User: Which sequence fits this backbone?
């Protein structure tokens, strides 16, 4: 694409009231800081580029650059739903259509190189960039973003940018015959539907490490109750697998599990994260467990086998031979001083 074509596209974007910045063509998706005022794009979060700046970035003798659209109030309340995983596009669209038919027609959609989707809209109510849906990546032991937003303080690479702007060597393309000339303003309620539909696809909750005192207390209290004895002797596989949970992988001492009814090999929960020997649930689709919390082996057993009736679960385990000593250890009386 010649510089003159890029100059024409950039000038048109400015006429539409969109702020933008020059993007490097080395696949990093980073700004060309040497062309920016004071080597930062922060001023462009508050004002549109001047004609002189646009000419310097995309004119005849300018280096080849891409175009990064700046989101936020500077672009009339522009916000973008960024779906980074192609497998999430259709589920998100289906859920939006279920909740509010016709809403997707108001978005300007762009096919991203990965491939993925950018859904552009303007709204009176926007915010900074947010992560809406993530998935645990067992290959590098961290959360992978599936769907996020680009809002105030963020930018996205726009159609018209050279293929070198993305590491795949592919370009951004408008879909459905719409361009930024077709941008529409949606209501805060409609924006909430877009966000809700994405959050329902989230598969990850950040594990909360247990307090050291809780681990010490657990060791001191394990003196003979059936549940404590059960926690010490039973493997997680004996508890989860009879109910359809699948062990998908192990990293160090952490085991990764997939919930019943799912066969993609993805992670729905972990056991022994931070060495706490607890089941930690990431997904909201693992009934009867709740998302974003941990369970001991005894708790999981009681929930799965006795609908959360712990007394009944303890009696069952006692009949199976779990438990023993009933008098508390001498250290019990010193708990207040220890913690």
Assistant:
């Amino acid at each position: 694409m010649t510089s003159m074509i890029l100059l024409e596209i950039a000038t048109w974007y400015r006429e539409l009231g969109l702020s933008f910045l020059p993007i490097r063509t080395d696949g990093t998706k980073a700004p060309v800081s040497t062309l920016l005022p004071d080597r930062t794009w922060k001023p462009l979060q508050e004002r549109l580029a001047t004609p002189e700046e646009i000419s310097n970035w995309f004119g005849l003798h300018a280096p080849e650059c891409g175009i990064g659209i700046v989101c936020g109030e500077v672009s009339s309340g522009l916000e973008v739903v960024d779906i980074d995983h192609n497998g999430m596009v259709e589920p998100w669209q289906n859920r939006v259509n279920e909740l509010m038919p016709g809403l997707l027609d108001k978005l300007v959609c762009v096919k991203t190189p990965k491939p993925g989707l950018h859904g552009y809209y303007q709204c009176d109510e926007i915010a900074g960039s947010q992560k809406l849906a993530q998935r645990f990546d067992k290959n590098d032991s961290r959360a992978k973003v599936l769907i996020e937003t680009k809002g105030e303080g963020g930018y996205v690479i726009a159609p018209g940018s050279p293929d070198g702007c993305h590491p795949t060597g592919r370009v951004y393309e408008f879909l459905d015959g719409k361009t930024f000339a077709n941008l529409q303003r949606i209501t805060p309620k409609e924006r909430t539907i877009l966000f809700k539909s994405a959050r329902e696809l989230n598969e990850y909750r950040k594990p909360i490490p247990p307090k050291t005192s809780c681990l010490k207390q657990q060791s001191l209290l394990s003196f003979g109750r059936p549940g404590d004895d059960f926690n010490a002797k039973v493997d997680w596989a004996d508890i989860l697998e009879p109910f359809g949970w699948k062990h998908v992988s192990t990293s160090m001492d952490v085991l990764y599990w997939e919930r019943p009814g799912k066969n993609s090999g993805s992670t729905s929960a972990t056991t022994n994260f931070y060495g706490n020997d607890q089941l930690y649930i990431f997904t909201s689709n693992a009934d009867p467990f709740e998302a974003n919390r941990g369970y001991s082996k005894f708790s999981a057993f009681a929930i799965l086998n006795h609908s959360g009736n712990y007394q009944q679960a303890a009696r069952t385990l006692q009949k199976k031979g779990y438990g023993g000593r009933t008098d508390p250890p001498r250290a019990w009386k010193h708990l207040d001083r220890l913690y």
